[in-house]
Input
Amino acid sequence: MKKIAIAFVLTLLVAVGGFAQVDRSKLPASGPAPEIKIGEAETFTLDNGLKVFVVKNDKLPRVSFTLVLERDPILEGDKAGLTGFVGEMMMAGTKNRTKDQLDQEVDFIGASLSASSTSMFASSLKKHQGKVLELMADVLFNPVFPQEELDKLRKQSLTALAQSKDNPNVISSRLSAAVVYGKNHPYGEVETEATINNVTVEDVKSYYQTYFKSNIAYLAIVGDMDKAEAEKVVKQYFGNWKQGEVPKFTYPIPERASKRAVALVDRSSSVQSVINLTQPVKMKIGDDDYISSRVLNQILGGGSASRLFMNLREDKGYTYGAYSSIGADKLVATISVNASVRTEVTDSAVYEFIYEIQNLVENGVTEEELAKAKAELSGSFGRSLEQPATVANFALNTDRYKLPKDYYATYLQKLSALTVDDINATAKRLIEPDKFIITTVGNGAEIKEKLAQFGEVTLYDNMGMPAKELTADANMTAEKVLETYLTAIGGMEKVKAIKTAKISMDADVMGTPLNLAFVYDSQNGRYGQKLSVGGNVMQKTTLADGKGSMSVQGNSMEMNEAQLAEAKLNSFLFPEAVYQENGYTLTFDGLKDVDGTPAYKVIIATATGAKLTNYYAQETGLKIKYENPASGDTFYSDYQAKDGVLLPMAWTIKSPAIPVPLEAKVTSMELNVPVTDEDVK
Output
């Protein structure tokens, strides 16, 4: 018993001593990279050049077919938007089936079937694979491209384009592409109303006939099918697909800026700035720096533990998230860092971006950062292998990028072997901190001068084109702009003669009828606004007796002082007639381009800081645009005389609360009529 006790104590002392020798201030050393057993895709090529990859997975009775066309990027020019129509046009009916019949047959077997300008995808239960392949082949070989489908797609595309012009994130992407690649590069060109309207059915047919050729196609089959069966069904459904000569294109590689510069889109209604620092990079999968660039990006801005995220969000609180990306593309890609930040910290955020980029290049990464990044990337790689489609994608990439056969099997070994010196060398080779273009979408009046410290500021419009340089009369003031406007609509005397108004407007949002009703009572300081959908009041605003309230779907709340001040700015039918007597501050901000119309910009502010911005056409003096950070932008047109005063009968409202621009038309307007308390409630 004594011997047992002594043995227990000795064992305990050894154990304690062992624990005491562990240095918990350091991360445990990484073990050797595991050997990856990636299931190989079996492959074969048809006589017509179609390359097929098969990844058998019989865990579920399903099978999917992914067809990819390997063509060069296309500069669409005056028909930009064409390739976006091709897939939907192919799915709009065949020589054997109408669109409705095709959709019904796909739905009946619970399958998926889709197409784009460079791919097709089909998926179904194993027992329905013959049917889904029949449908896929019918779409691939027998599309009819109906004119009515193009008309519908064109309308949808134009609506989306109109919406995108007021989306700061889309504007930022468009601007970044324009300044990095240029408008004469496939990655930099922009769709416009003109280019979309230029696309014809014949253009779509010509594209299809030119590029849908078997000799540039890959087919990946994933699911409950082996190679022998795949050879049989692929020959059956795709064996007669014709080869053809496909055009090749080359484009100059965009050069980096000679020095740091700023590209700014002035969006006055923005309460945030969308920032993106970007420069082109020549990088494709398989390049010597490719894997090390993944590690580099992970450390810089690849997630919530990255330098950018920890600095701009966790430390400074400038944003919800700050990220980076180092792209890879057969042609050219970009290095970018980005975030959306509060307007007042825009310049501070840019400073931190530049600091982090310079610090990374000049001082490099740490062993601890490298270990964490490797662990994160290894885990992500491992999880991706759970999807059979990953194996097929690896096989496609191996062929398309001419990679070594064991490239993905040895991926973790290559990742594990990277050292701090490797990552630092990659940073110095890829990144030039003083040659980034800083693209920013935000309130120019608040941020333009602050951004000038980082480089020359060039203004762009919301389509990524250099903004038109407009010069206002040197003697023009905000007061003169308002005076001209009041004269243009009928004169101060007639304007002030209108004491009350009731206006009703009808609109349509994606097939849903809406009604906007406004009640103005300038004599008694009362205002009412209602938004009704299908006859039901969804939202309303009320001002009366010096107080204000807002209601959304029956839930009401009283306005605070700042909200009340802002609401009062919007409560006058002719606010320009009362701005000065109500103590509002007016700021003239020059001559701007409003969708092709030169217009004077005037910023109106209350003592509490509430602001709105109006634009008045230089030629006519009429108000053509109103901006409000909370409610969005409103464009005014179709001015008509009512009681001797010109009033806009058409409003286009672009609000963050609605998915598409709202085209509202005045259906009734009553001026100088009695207004009761009930009218404004």
About this structure: Residues 2-20 form the longest helix (19 residues).
